[in-house]
Amino acid sequence: MDYIERLKSIEQTEQIENVFIIYHPEDIDFAAHLEKVLKNYRPPDELGGSGTPLKIFKDAHDLPDDIYYTPIRQRFEQCQKLIVVCTPRARQNNDLDEKIRKFAVQNGARNITPVIFEGLPNHLTEDDKKEFGALPEVLYELLPNPQWVNFSGFNLQKDKLHKEGFESEWYTLLAELSGQKRLDLAQRERNRGFRRRRHRLLAISALLGLLLTVGGLYLQKYYGEIAARERALSLALVDESRQNSQQMFSENRIMQALFYASEALDAAPDPELRTELLAESRKYEPVLRLGQIFRHQGEINGAIFNPDYTEIFTWGDQGKIKRWHAKSGAAIDGGETHQGAVNGIRFTENGQKVLSWGEDGYLKLWSIDGVSRSKISMNHGDGVVDAQFDQKETRVISIGKNFSARIFQLSDGKPQGPPLEHDGWINGALMNADESILLTWSDDSTLKCWNVANGRLLMQPLRHKGAVQGAIWYKNESQIISWATDGEVRFWYARNGQPVGKTLKHDGAVSGVCLNQNETRMLSWGRDNTARLWQVEDRLQIGDPLYHDGWVFGAAFNNSETRVLTWSYDNSVRIWDTNTGKQVGNAFLHSSGPLGNDAGIFGAAFNSAGDYILTWGDDNTTRLWSIRTGRQLGASLHHDNKGRQNHEVRGCVFNADFTRVITWSSDSTARYWESLKQISDDYRNEAVLDLDFPQDAYKMQMMALTGTRMDSASRQIECLSVSEWDSLSATFGELARKHARKCDYPEGNLWLRFFPPNK
After folding, report:
1. C-beta separation of 135 from 150 below 8 A
2. 3-state secondary structure 592-645
3. β-sheet bridge partners, residue 653
4. Average per-residue pLDDT for the chain
5. Environment class of residue 153 by beta-carbon count within 10 Å: exposed (0-12), middle (13-18) or buried (19+)?
6. What is the pLDDT of residues 415-474, one digit of tens each?
7. Is 721 helix (H, G, I), strand (E, B) or coil?
8. What was the pLDDT predicted at 5?
9. What is the dihedral of CA 684, 686, 691, 697, to 10 degrees?
10. Contact 706, 262 (CB under 8 A)
């Protein structure tokens, strides 16, 4: 066929292909064979294929450029999936690299499937055999951990793509192209083959009625062989999923471990094996369940419980403060609004009123009873970034973007005295015990002491050589401790502002300081990748610096003050002995986020008993850890990462024992997590398992309790949409309640752990 005839054939094709195959010209024989087999494959009807062949199109290297570009490029742009035939030759081909990049921009890198025909994955080659690497380097740029289908060693003359030694890779390829689960494809294909064979056998049986007895014996043997093969394949799938689960657990990828364990349970062919797998899966199961998802139209800036934990308040950049029932997730009327983004809220001590502030420059005090809202409105004059009540809740101290702090009387909303001004952004404010003095500190390198009664300075500003990040009172308020980006922690006499004793130094900006309860020890931390423990009285450092591999974002003592917790940009949380300054156990690690970058753990906390820690950060997760075992306790609390966007968990609030937790993220949701029973990791060692829980509902249970699933193609964890989760959790809740009423193993039932009957 000449070029013109081939061009007409391409242009007249009615079928629009959705899979495009690219390859090095020398690999055309394998590419053509792959195209032929894929075109002849008809997906099983049960998976929605309706017997229609796959739509496949292969690149063409033998057409001149002026004929090639219009029809071939058109088909390339219409395809949703791309197969790259990978060989050491292909790795060196710039034309393939360009097509891969173009396809990734149009359809996303996750829709690219590398198929190795010769060679090895680049990262598995030895240093002296790098020439055997088969994957184009651009795949490592687009997919930090590319997954491939391995047909290396395939013989075009004698091997079959879909049989014998390459059957497993064939189903992996089909799963990548169709978006179906590999297990489902294999199972449905086996069922289809079995039906065909069964139909043939029935026809033969009808014709050989006189040989019914012999035929019966033959069928019995045949079906026995089929059952044996089915069991062998199921066991192979169980073994593969089980190994993957254990590997993910060893890498602290608990969510992937959980879903691989679910796949193993789905495929388990007998009760004994299922019991064994259930026992293994205990260490992955959720300790906190996803209770509600609260969505805003824009970014969420914060969330908080009301004092009795029955309601949740969220606020964001759309100027709305929303109220929700914690138990039902229903919205409650009565939230306040601002004209710009809301930056924060606080409850009064009795929990009946709320103070809110935002970018519109206003502070509002309003009742939550829905009757008398916005009784007091205070105008700071510019965006308000923080606010706090005085002890008697008669005044409010606010900090604004206009480089000023203000004091307002709550009786009438009027300012008390003039603005308290700096020459730069104010980073915080703090009153003394009798509320006669207000400290403010600023990016203008000063700490100022103000007379609250008249708004005048009590002394000259206390100066650092960098932006002042914080200040606290010390020694019954006779001294002030301040810290700054100049790397120094300084002590001052409160009466006259004179320096006191030795200045404590870091090798970079100091981000925070805290004292223990009796003020004998002090923690400081900062951008020199360290936290430091000090004897406050004599200004001596205890032990060596507490090192991380990135900025230290925060540190805290536990309640008994025997341990220190630090968290960092290096995606780790570490525990240290307060007497020796030595690290206790191994670091607690988050992943590096969906984009593979390290932006760190933004917060961490001990529970009241000091036996668990909660951490949250840039990888879209909040995690609970057992200090006793040094491992993550159950599944992560996940936020959305679809499209590999870097949605980080920006904040977290919780009760003292971590049984109620709110997290919020740049994915525009806040999520409420809970356990109605005390958190414990002891039950994971118990012998009681819910052996009669429906086998095919285990994965649904994990999806409902975590709000996530594992993508069948990329094997990455992604969140269900709010509507998907609402529907799934309702379906699961009905099933779980029905099962719980007749459950023979209530102590092993996960649903009853979250919803005890007496609750």
Report:
1. no
2. CCCCCCCCCEEEEEECCCCCEEEEEECCCEEEEEECCCCEECCCCEECCCHHHC
3. 662
4. 86
5. exposed
6. 999 999 999 999 999 999 999 999 999 999 999 999 999 999 999 999 999 999 999 999
7. coil
8. 47
9. -10
10. no
